[in-house]
């Protein structure tokens, strides 16, 4: 009776050790996968926000450029008949109503007298400009954009000004367009609405670190020049950084400054929201593997009364089940009777499923979830490896033309389908030794192994013409612009090759889009 009691305790101990070791191995594997994916999601969120901020800064630059062209046209019209008040009023009314940009428009002569204004109920005609900023605009006699300042009417405004010259080139005055920061929706109109479900938001600061656009209107005019991101904006054009916002909330921020105004665009995502998907993903993997773990434990418990020594070996192996090489040790255990053989096979099956799930997590961390192409993190590793091996390659940066219009016109779901459409076609273009990656947003990268620059150009031209003829998910054709650079022809470092290909892409866009350019460096 005593020996039986001792034997039962030993059985339970063996089962407990095996179960504990197995569960610990699962926890270690899951935790390691979780940490790796958290790091990846952080990097991805930072890069996505940086690219998005860069795109928004380009949108603002384009808007400012378009607005200046319209004002330059109005200034030329006004200069033709500067003394004709009726014509001046008509042109100012047209500029005010047509653009839907300005909160008010005025024409000021060289002596700071306001001649006409729109809307006319402002009643500014006949008064004089007295603000320092308004007088500075007259003094400069050039196209000018002010930082936000308080107007005599008590409004915080931004002033866009264009000089007026007559036919003889004599300076006559300026046409000024004002934007009331607290009343105008101009930034929503230019940048688009951002109804993020994950707590992300966009804000804009001027060159002095003063907020000129924020989803929370109460923060307009607030000086945030001491903010880490804003300090970086003053030092460099774009980047990404993990910061703490004014509510002491950790944020993943991407930022970029505009060329024309030196305003800073900041896109922020709460840290917890950015990594939330990792927890769900790991939980799903664990949930799928849990039934097999439980079944294996029950099976061991049933047979433990007659199996001691082989199970002790299996318990030791289960403690290291996160390592795939331990599978071979399990297979080497001598199954000299039926029960041991069945337990061994059950554990092998369970370990295989667990390792398969972990490997799936690793694969998902190296691919872009939307397009199933390699992601930027994997691309960075491969291009550095190829360069270290001195393996020749041609790099292509490809950007979908007018992709923002696709999202604005058809919605982000169709926009995602367009990216998947381009990705599927890219898979058909690359060879067995080539790589296709999603670089971020609507940008893709091809790494063409040991391909000459001429052959790469020919392949891209054929692909570009083919894509333009196909019907995309929008129901229309889609075009792209691309830039090409070659290692080692155009540089000896990945960063240099990327920069030159990106410069070539910029030239392709500058030259009308829907074209492929080779770097001229």
Plain-language structure description:
This protein is an alpha+beta fold and 521 residues long. It is built from 14 helices and 16 strands. It has helices at residues 2-80, 85-99, 132-140, 186-191, 228-235, 271-303, 309-318, 326-332, 338-366, 376-388, 403-410, 412-429, 453-469, 494-510, and strands at 104-109, 114-118, 144-145, 149-150, 156-165, 171-180, 201-205, 211-213, 238-244, 250-257, 264-270, 393-400, 435-440, 443-449, 480-487, 516-518. Strands 1, 2, 3, 4, 5 and 6 form a 6-stranded antiparallel sheet that branches. A 5-stranded antiparallel sheet has the order 8-7-11-10-9. A hairpin with a 4-residue loop joins strand 1 (104-109) and strand 2 (114-118). Helix 1 runs antiparallel to helix 6, helix 1 runs parallel beside helix 7 (309-318) and helix 1 (2-80) runs parallel beside helix 9 (338-366). The chain is elongated. It starts with a helix and ends with a strand.
Q: How far from one another are the termini?
A: 90 Å
Q: What percent of residues adopt helix (DSSP H or I)? A: 40-55%
Q: Which band does the percent of strand residues land in? A: 15-25%
Instruction: Compute the average pLDDT.
Output: 81
Overall morphology: elongated
Helix-and-strand structural type? alpha+beta
Unreliable spans: 1-8, 353-364
- Total of DSSP H or I helical runs spanning 4+ residues: 14
Query: Strand-and-helix sequence, N→C?
Result: HHEEHEEEEHEEHEEEHHHHHEHHEEHEHE
Radius of gyration: 32 Å
The largest sheet is: 6 strands, antiparallel
Number of strands: 16
């Amino acid at each position: 009776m005593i020996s039986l009691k001792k034997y039962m305790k030993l059985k339970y101990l063996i089962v407990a050790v095996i179960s504990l070791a197995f569960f610990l191995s699962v926890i270690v594997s899951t935790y390691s996968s979780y940490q790796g994916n958290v790091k990846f999601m952080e990097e991805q969120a930072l890069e996505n926000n940086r690219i998005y901020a860069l795109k928004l800064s380009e949108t603002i630059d384009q808007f400012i450029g378009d607005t200046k062209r319209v004002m330059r046209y109005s200034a030329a019209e006004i200069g033709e008949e500067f003394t004709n008040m009726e014509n001046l009023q008509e042109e100012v009314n047209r500029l005010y109503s047509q653009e839907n940009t300005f909160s008010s428009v005025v024409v000021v002569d060289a002596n700071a007298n306001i001649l006409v204004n729109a809307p006319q109920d402002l009643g500014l005609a006949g008064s004089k400009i007295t603000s320092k900023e308004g007088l500075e605009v007259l003094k400069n006699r050039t196209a000018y954009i002010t930082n936000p300042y308080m107007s005599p009417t008590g409004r915080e405004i931004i002033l866009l000004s264009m000089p007026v010259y007559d036919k003889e080139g004599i300076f006559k005055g300026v046409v000024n367009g004002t934007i009331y920061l607290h009343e105008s929706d101009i930034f929503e109109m230019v940048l688009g609405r951002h109804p993020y479900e994950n707590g992300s938001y966009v804000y804009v600061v001027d060159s002095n670190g003063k907020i000129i656009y924020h989803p929370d209107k109460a923060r307009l005019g607030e000086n945030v020049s001491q903010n880490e991101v804003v300090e970086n904006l003053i030092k460099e054009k774009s980047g990404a950084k993990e910061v703490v916002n004014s509510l002491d909330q950790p944020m993943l921020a991407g930022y970029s400054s505009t060329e024309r105004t030196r305003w800073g665009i900041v896109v922020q995502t709460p840290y917890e929201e950015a990594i939330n998907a990792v927890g769900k993903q790991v939980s799903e993997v664990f949930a799928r593997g849990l039934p097999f773990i439980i079944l294996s434990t029950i099976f061991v418990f049933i047979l433990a009364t007659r199996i001691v020594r082989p199970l002790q070996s299996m318990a030791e192996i289960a403690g290291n089940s996160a390592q795939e090489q331990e599978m071979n040790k399990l297979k080497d255990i001598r199954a000299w009777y039926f029960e041991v053989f069945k337990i061994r096979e059950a554990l092998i099956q369970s370990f295989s499923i667990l390792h398969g799930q972990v490997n799936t997590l690793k694969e998902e961390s190296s691919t872009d979830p939307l397009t199933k192409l390699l992601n930027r993190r994997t691309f960075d590793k491969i291009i550095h490896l190829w360069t270290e091996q001195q393996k020749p390659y041609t790099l292509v940066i490809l950007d979908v033309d007018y992709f923002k219009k696709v999202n604005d016109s058809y919605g982000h779901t169709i926009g995602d389908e367009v990216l998947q459409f381009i990705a599927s076609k890219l898979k058909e273009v690359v060879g067995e030794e080539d790589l296709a990656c999603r670089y971020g947003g609507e940008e893709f990268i091809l790494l063409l192994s040991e391909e000459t620059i001429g052959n790469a150009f020919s392949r891209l031209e054929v692909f570009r013409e083919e894509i333009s003829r196909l019907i995309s998910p929008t129901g229309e054709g889609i075009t792209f612009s691309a830039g090409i650079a070659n290692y080692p022809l155009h540089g000896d470092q990945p960063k240099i090759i990327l920069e030159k290909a990106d410069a070539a892409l910029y030239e392709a866009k500058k030259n009308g889009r829907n074209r492929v350019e080779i770097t001229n460096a």
